[in-house]
Amino acid sequence: MKLKIALHWQIIIGLALGIIWAVISSLFGWSEFTVNWIAPFGTIFINLLKLIAVPLVLFSIINGVANIGDPSSLGRMGGKTLLAYLLTTIFAVGLGLLLVNVIKPGKLIDEQSRIDNRISYELWAASQNLEIKDGINYLKDPAFMERAQEISDLSRAELHNATVSEKMETASETKDAGPLQPLVDIVPVNIFTSLADNGLMLQVIFFALFFGISLLFIPAEKAAPVNAFIEGVMEIFLKMVDIVMRAAPFFVFALLAGVVSKMAGDDLGKVVEIFKGLSWYSLTVFLGLVLMIFIVYPLIFKIFVRAVSYTGFFKAISPAQALAFSTSSSAATLPVTMECVEDNLGVDNKITSFVLPIGATVNMDGTCLYQAVAVVFLAQLHMIDLTLAQQLTIVLTATLASIGSAAVPSAGLVMLIIVLQSVGLNPGWIAIILPVDRILDMCRTVVNVTGDATVSSVIAKSEGMFKYPGKPEKVKNPA
């Protein structure tokens, strides 16, 4: 009898083996081999998923809108979708602020380091002609001036970090573009240009909605061949997903082995030291993300859907969650998310093809939670107490920034810069948390994908399009 292991377990085994291999390769000095000969297969995996994601978004939205039939239903469904995503985002930011204010990870760092950080902040504020937020100026104390001179070069160098400077430039362009610029950016000039750039997913969604709505208003006999063509193309892309996912465990092994090997090199102690200094911050973010995944979303599901058990919910979407963790991309995971939600949860294709692509683009619950924690942590690290008004500004800015961030590369870090600037803090501080950002990004993406699946199920239930296909233990795997 042949033992059949479920896909999500195969992916998890691949994740574990990838990390184990990276540790072994670091200990034996094989990191260069791992990076050169194993990691590229992980890159190929992500490229394959991204290759499928954009056209799948295009055709699935057109198909979903065209099959709705009644244009009024589209407006109602769209309103529910955006409201649901907005509410979960606000809740995620609020949860992040609650945790970081209770745990206070930035105050658990060595006191002398915090004083040095505070002096760096005041040097930066003076160079920017900004008023010190809490009214305390350590530079007026002669005892701190000598230490300030020692670290002033480091403070200036922080702003010239290549990675940070690039993100700051992008954030500055985004912030100064005008209040309606995100609306302008949604409308494509050339759809083929938009299809060629994964960062322009909102433009693809706009075109798909426009095309699908137009299909609703032409005679049925003329729309029929177009609908048939779109459905046929969708089937091809879904089959491509099936083929790629059969090799997912190996690809995930290569992906994780490459990520850890690049961070550790041949000295695993470097990674340990990096994470040790940021452990309290990382644990606070991780706790918030875990609460969203295992408490908040299942609770929402239980209240509004009430058709699936707690374990059944996770069995249904676990392949998408495992893939989200390994790829750190909601868009790359989208094909698998759609298949899990449709086949395993029983959500109608009309809902998944409309709600999930929008969610993969604009729903960033995990990212917004991390931003709330990061901003307050960085303030605490520099001995700055943010007021209630400033923390409410974080909620508003993080929520609004998440809506228009899909067209920006490295969206999470760019959004964080904008949020830091909104409360008068140094955007160059993102360099402090960059070392752990990759790992936390993997966890944030799991939150985003889980939120997409939850919202789509709630919308389906409200529209009478939720049909759970059996008991949890009979849940299918996408592959």
**Number of E-state strands:** 0
CATH topology: Proton glutamate symport protein
Which structural class should the secondary elements be placed in? mainly alpha
The best one-word shape is: globular
Secondary-structure element sequence? Answer: HHHHHHHHHHHHHHHHHHHHH
With helices defined by DSSP (H or I, 4 residues minimum), what is the helix count?
Answer: 21
Question: In CATH, what is the homologous superfamily?
Answer: Sodium:dicarboxylate symporter
As a percent range, the share of strand residues is: under 5%
Quick one: biggest sheet? none
Helical content stands at: over 70%
Q: Span between N and C termini?
A: 20 Å
Query: What is the level-2 CATH architecture name?
Result: Orthogonal Bundle
Please compute the radius of gyration using only Cα atoms.
24 Å
User: Tell me, what is the CATH class?
Assistant: Mainly Alpha
Poorly predicted residue ranges = 151-164, 406-410, 470-479
Nearest-integer average pLDDT = 77
Tell me the number of structural domains: 1
Description:
The protein has helices spanning about 5-30, 30-35, 40-70, 70-105, 110-125, 140-160, 160-175, 180-185, 190-195, 200-215, 220-245, 250-265, 270-275, 280-305, 310-325, 330-345, 350-360, 365-380, 390-405, 410-420, 430-460. The protein has one domain (about 5-475): Proton glutamate symport protein (Orthogonal Bundle), CATH 1.10.3860.10. The protein is globular. Helices cover about 80% and strands about 0% of the residues. The chain has about 475 residues and is mostly helical. It is built from 21 helices and no strands. α18 (about 365-380) runs antiparallel to α19 (about 390-405).
